[in-house]
Design a protein that fits this description.
Layout: H1 2-8, H2 10-22, H3 35-38, H4 42-53, E1 65-69, E2 73-74, E3 78-79, E4 84-87, H5 90-99, H6 101-106, H7 108-125, H8 127-138, H9 142-168, E5 174-179, E6 186-196, E7 199-203, H10 214-222, E8 227-230, H11 237-252, E9 260-262, H12 271-276, E10 281-287, H13 290-299, E11 304-308, E12 314-317, H14 323-335, E13 347-351, H15 364-379, H16 382-389, H17 395-404, E14 408-411, E15 430-435, H18 439-442, E16 450-456, H19 459-473, E17 478-481, H20 485-498, E18 502-504, H21 537-541, E19 544-552
Parallel strand pairs: 7-8, 7-10, 8-9, 10-11, 12-13, 12-17, 13-16, 15-16, 17-18
Antiparallel strand pairs: 1-4, 2-3, 5-6, 6-19, 14-15
Helix pairs in contact: 1-7, 2-9, 4-8, 7-9, 7-11, 8-9, 9-10, 14-15, 19-20
Length: 553
């Protein structure tokens, strides 16, 4: 059946492979939740499917489970009440995960790819259900949850599958080897088999449970590795649905469904740390804070570890051809999902003497006022504001927001009342004024709706601070605004030195914290914020080895 699945989805795979090579625009899954795209009843059906999970047990079994856990509370102010098997016996869990690995390996690249593509198609069929699950575990607004947690996450997963299939099929399955000699040549037949590394562990995060987990899950699964999915306790449901679909397709295709398992836990179980150092676990994907990411890199020595950690995303402002558009673009970037994104900008460096604009020289205070005015236009109406801001994901974000208010506040944060969810926690961004001497503040990530406007001596110092801070503390994104080609070249060179992706003079409908699958490289692996680029061949190629056998003909 798996070969039939490959043929069924071959056209989609070939389009994705071509897009990875060209880096042109491509999306396999429509990002609009419009009934014209998905059908008149799709939204209601997805809502009903999500609602049916609330307050009851999720129908999955976890090998070695004991009891259940129910740990999710929506940032919109209510308990989900969904219970999951509590992973308890790690020996049993890992034994079950590895039991079907040989048969899965023997399915070959096309067979495994066909199964993974079918899983993606079925996840797509449940996109509205998934969007609701992402919204009420992450706090993303619904449309963002549909796009980032649904369509864009599916694109990222497909991208990983496309890269993996390309890498796995780069070497032929068989070859006839002939070495000329004085008499008959020496002839050998050689067989090359893609062999998985071992069990993979995916450690999910609270803010982007699908977008950040699916690339690693599918990169490992399609290359032959069983996957244990350890969700964040506050964001289990999206990954439980994912595991359910994976198991359904695997079983239908004749493979062991425990090739993908869910390992849910209580917050104090520390299950990820236990699993991460097991010798059976050979691959780890983690998105989250520096402390545990660093711990994984230091202690999980038996595994290939991919981490996406905290960083200090930076904007260098030198000058602009359109002051209003620049302020609007930055305001949107600060406001989107209340800055709760690994790609959201935080540090904005600009000269204390001001920046040249189409509206004259603007002082740092005037730049702050311009961004503040843009935020007011975006967020002045509460009903509109919540669709951009979403909800605050946890109390840690609120604590950081409160702590930031002790500095010189240029734009204050305000509480927004959600028109549908009275108990939702919603805040607008805060803009803080700092100087270059305040490195103890701006050299650390302040995850959430906080941004720093940092006065420097001049643009040269801004660029130097950008380069140095990212080299030492990491970043996922960077941006520059300048009308000078020389300055843009200077910042571009600094970005290469620091190993971070750069956006230049964004004034329209593209924002620094957005990343397009099949074209943009999310992360680089070239600075401390991430140990890999999450969209290239190297990310998948390290998940398997090619083992040969040979014989005389």
């Amino acid at each position: 059946m798996s070969d039939t699945l490959f043929d069924r989805h071959r056209e989609r795979l070939e389009a994705a492979v071509a897009a990875c090579a060209s880096r042109e625009y491509f999306s396999a899954f429509d990002e609009s939740p419009s009934p014209r795209v998905y059908g008149e009843t799709a939204a209601a059906d997805g809502q009903a499917a999500y609602d049916a999970w609330l307050g009851g047990p999720f129908p999955l079994t976890t090998p070695g489970a004991s009891g259940t856990v129910a740990t999710e509370r929506s940032p919109y102010g209510f308990e989900l009440g969904v219970s999951y098997p509590r992973a308890a016996d790690v020996d049993a869990l890992l034994a079950a995960a590895g039991a079907g690995m040989s048969a899965w390996r023997d399915a070959g690249p096309d067979g495994r790819t066909g199964v993974c593509l079918e899983i993606l198609a079925r996840l797509h069929a449940r996109i509205f259900e998934l969007a609701n699950a992402v919204q009420h575990t992450s706090g993303q607004a619904f449309v963002m949850a549909f796009q980032a947690g649904g369509a864009h996450a599916l694109d990222r997963a497909l991208e990983a599958v496309a890269y993996a299939w390309t890498e796995m099929t780069r070497t032929p399955a068989t070859a006839l080897w002939e070495k000329p000699g004085r008499g008959e040549p020496i002839r050998m037949e050689k067989t090359f088999t893609v062999v998985p590394r071992g069990i993979a562990l995916v450690i999910g995060c609270n803010t982007f449970p699908t977008w950040n987990s699916w690339p690693g899950l599918f990169a490992s699964l399609v290359t032959g590795n069983p996957v244990v999915v350890k969700p964040h306790p506050a964001a289990v449901l999206p990954l439980a649905i994912t595991v359910q679909v994976c198991q359904e397709v695997l079983a239908e295709a004749g493979f062991d469904p425990d090739l993908v398992t869910l390992a849910a836990e209580e917050p104090d179980d520390h299950l990820a740390a236990t699993l991460a150092v097991r010798p059976e676990v050979r691959l780890i994907d983690f998105t989250g804070g520096n402390a545990f990411g660093d711990w994984l890199e230091e202690h999980a020595r038996q595994a290939v570890v991919f981490t996406e950690k905290a960083g200090v995303n930076t904007v260098v402002v030198d000058s602009t051809s359109d002051f209003g558009a620049m302020c609007q673009n930055l305001a949107f970037s600060f406001a989107l999902y209340s800055g709760q994104m690994c790609t959201a900008p935080q540090n904005v460096y600009l000269p204390a003497a001001g920046i040249a604009t189409d509206d004259g020289v603007k002082s740092p205070a005037e730049v702050g006022a311009g961004i503040g005015a843009a935020l007011e236009r975006l967020l002045g109406d509460d009903a509109r504001a919540v669709e951009l801001l979403g909800g605050i994901v946890n109390d840690g974000v609120l604590d950081r927001l409160e702590g930031a208010s002790k500095h010189d506040v240029l734009v204050a944060s305000r509480t927004v009342t959600h028109p549908t969810y009275d108990a939702a926690t919603v805040r607008t961004p805060m803009l803080i004024s700092l100087t270059a001497e305040d490195s103890d503040v701006y050299e650390s990530e302040c995850f959430g709706p906080v941004a720093y406007l940092i006065e420097t001596d001049d643009t040269d110092q801004s660029v130097a601070l950008f380069r140095d801070t990212v080299q030492r503390h990491g970043a996922m994104t960077a941006a520059v605004y300048s009308t000078s080609d020389e300055v843009v070249d200077q910042v571009r060179e600094a970005a290469l030195d620091a190993g971070v992706a750069l956006s230049e003079n964004l004034l329209g409908g593209v924002f620094v914290n957005q990343s397009a699958a099949f074209s943009d490289f999310h992360g680089t692996g070239a600075n401390p914020a991430a140990t890999a680029s999450y969209t290239d061949g190297a990310y998948v190629a390290s998940r398997f080895r090619v083992i040969q056998s040979r014989r005389h003909v």
